[in-house]
Amino acid sequence: MENKQRVSFLEGSPWEGVSASSALVVVGDHCYLSAVSPVQASGEVVALADPYQQTKFTIMKIVDILNKQGFFLEDIVRLRLYVIDIGRWNEYTRALREFFDKVRPALTIFETARLRDPRFMLEIEAEAVKGGMKGEIKDL
Question: What sign results for the dihedral spanned by CA atoms 58, 85, 115, 31?
Answer without folding.
Answer: negative
